[in-house]
Amino acid sequence: MRRILHMKGDVMCTVLLLVLFCLLLYARHEFPSSPSGPQLPPCKPQSRLKSPQSKSKSKGKSKSRRRNAVPTKAAGNPLPTMPPFDFAGYMREKDNRNFKLLIDQPEKCHIGGSGSNAAPYMLIAVKSIAADFDKRQVVRRTWGKEGHFENGVSIRTVFLLGVPKNHTALPLWDRLLAYESHTFKDILLWDFEDTFFNLTLKETHFLNWVNSSCPHVKFIFKGDADVYVNVENILEMLRGQEPDGDLFVGDIIINAKPIRRRTSKYYVPEFLYGGGLYPNYAGGGGFVMSGHTARRLSSACQQVELFPIDDVFLGMCLQLIGIKPSRHQGFRTFGIPRPSAAPHLQTFDPCFYRELMVVHSLRVPQIWLMWNLLHDPKLSCHNRTSQSSWPFKWRGNDSL
Ligand SMILES: *[C@@H]1O[C@H](CO)[C@@H](O)[C@H](O)[C@H]1NC(C)=O
Ligand SMILES: *[C@@H]1O[C@H](CO)[C@@H](O)[C@H](O)[C@H]1NC(C)=O
Ligand SMILES: *[C@@H]1O[C@H](CO)[C@@H](O)[C@H](O)[C@H]1NC(C)=O
Ligand SMILES: *[C@@H]1O[C@H](CO)[C@@H](O)[C@H](O)[C@H]1NC(C)=O
C-alpha cells in the first residue's frame, strides 16, 4: 500500500481505472465471447490485493482463455445484434445521422500546445468499444504510442467510441470513459449506440471530426483494435507521398458481391442494396489515407445514404468522388500464421512480420508479443529484398 501511495498521480490513475474496470467485468456473471475480461494483464496485481473471491474467478477465466485461443475474425468489432437485424427499421432511421460529440479532444491536433498550428504527421484512429479497455491499453503501449519518430514525424492516437448498447453490462461506463479520457486524452465518444451496424456512423462522425478538428493532419491510419500495425513500415511507405494529394491504401477488396445468406454477419437484403457488385473497398482491419482524402471523404460521405457495412459504405464515398483505392501487399494479411508463445508452434518468424504493415485478428497478448519481438534489439533479419514492394511469402503451412 505504502509503495502504491508513492507512485505518481498518473500511474495511480491508470491503476484505479484498471481496478474499476476489472471489478465491473468481474461483477458480471457471464462473460461475453470477446476476450476483454480474461486478458486484462494489469488485473493480476489487483486480484492479489483483493478478496479470494476475485482470485478464484480470475483463475476460472484463464482457463477459458486457453480454450478459445484461436483468434476469430470478429474479435475487434462489436458483434451484430443477434436477433435478425431489422433492415426495414434501419431504412426508416437512416436519415437520423447527426449525433453529438460527448467527449472531444480539442487539443489532439495542436502539436506543441493550443494555439500552435503544427498538425501531426500521422493520426492513428482506432475503432473501439467501451468495454475493451484492455485492447485500448495494449494499443497505447505498443503500435499506437504517441510521440515523435525519426525525422521529427509526430504521431497522435484517438479511439473512436459510441455509447454502449447494454448499460447494465457496463454500469458507470460514462464515468469510466470520462476518467479514461482525462488520463489518456485520446477518447472520442459520440452519442449513438455502439453496434456493429452503427460503425458507419462512427466512420462519418470521425471524418467530420477530422475535417473540423484535425484538418491539417498529413496522413491517417484508421483501423481496428485487434490488429498489429507496423508503423515504421507505414511511415516508410508514406515517405515521398503528397499529403495534399489523394491517397487511399489498404487491403482493397475488388468486385465483391453482397452476401444474401441470411445467417451471415454481412447479410444484406436486396431492398437495401440492389446493385450487383459493391464498389471497391478496403477491408481487413486498417487502411491509410491522406488528410486531403479524409477531408474530401467527409463531405462525400454526407451525400451517400447510410449503409450498414462501414467498409463498403466508405467504398461508396470513394466511388462518388472518383478516388481509386490502391491495394498494397503489406495489408494482405489473411491466413498467415500468428505469433505464439507455445514452443511447439514454431511458425512465428518475426522477420516475416517485419515486412508487413497490418496483421489483423490478433488478441491482446499476441499484439504485445509481436511488438516486443519486433522491437527486440537482438532481432536480426537479412536485408529486405526490395524497399517498395514488401514481398511476403505464403508459408507452406497456411492456417486458413
Ligand atoms: C445486458 O447485460 C446484462 C449483464 O451482462 C445481461 O444480463 C442482459 O441480458 C443484457 N441485456 C441485453 C438486452 O442484452
Ligand atoms: C444506431 O444508434 C442510434 C442512436 O443511438 C440508435 O437509435 C440505432 O438503433 C442504432 N442503430 C443500429 C443499427 O444499431
Ligand atoms: C469541412 O470544413 C470546411 C472548412 O471549415 C467547411 O467549409 C466544410 O463545410 C466542412 N465539411 C463538412 C462535411 O463538415
Ligand atoms: C545489408 O544491407 C547493408 C546496408 O544496406 C549492407 O551494408 C550489407 O552488406 C547488406 N547485407 C547483406 C547480407 O546483403
> What is the string of helix and strand elements?
HHHHHEEHEEHEHEEHEEHHEHEH
- Bound ions, cofactors and other small molecules, one mention each: 2-acetamido-2-deoxy-beta-D-glucopyranose
**Molecular shape:** globular
As a percent range, the share of strand residues is 5-15%
What's the architecture of the domain at 99-332, going by CATH? Answer: Alpha-Beta Complex
Distance between the termini: 49 Å
Query: Roughly what is the average pLDDT, rounded to an integer?
Result: 77
Helix content: 25-40%
Question: Descriptors for this entry?
Answer:
single chain, 14% strand, 400 residues, UDP-glycosyltransferase activity, transferase, binds 2-acetamido-2-deoxy-beta-D-glucopyranose, 11 strands, 9-stranded mixed sheet, Spore Coat Polysaccharide Biosynthesis Protein SpsA, Chain A, signal, alpha/beta, signal-anchor, 34% helix
Structural write-up:
- The strands form two sheets. Strands 1, 2, 3, 4, 5, 6, 8, 9 and 10 form a nine-stranded mixed sheet that branches.
- The protein has helices at residues 2-6, 9-27, 43-49, 52-67, 87-93, 133-141, 173-184, 199-213, 231-238, 291-302, 310-320, 350-354, 364-374, and strands spanning 101-103, 122-127, 147-149, 153-163, 187-193, 219-224, 228-229, 248-253, 281-290, 326-327, 358-359.
- The radius of gyration is 21 Å and the shape is globular.
- It has a domain at 99-332: Spore Coat Polysaccharide Biosynthesis Protein SpsA, Chain A (Alpha-Beta Complex).
- Strand 3 (147-149) and strand 4 (153-163) form a beta hairpin.
- The protein has 13 helices and eleven strands.
- The protein is of the alpha/beta class.
- The protein binds 2-acetamido-2-deoxy-beta-D-glucopyranose (NAG) (4 copies).
- One 2-acetamido-2-deoxy-beta-D-glucopyranose binds next to loops.
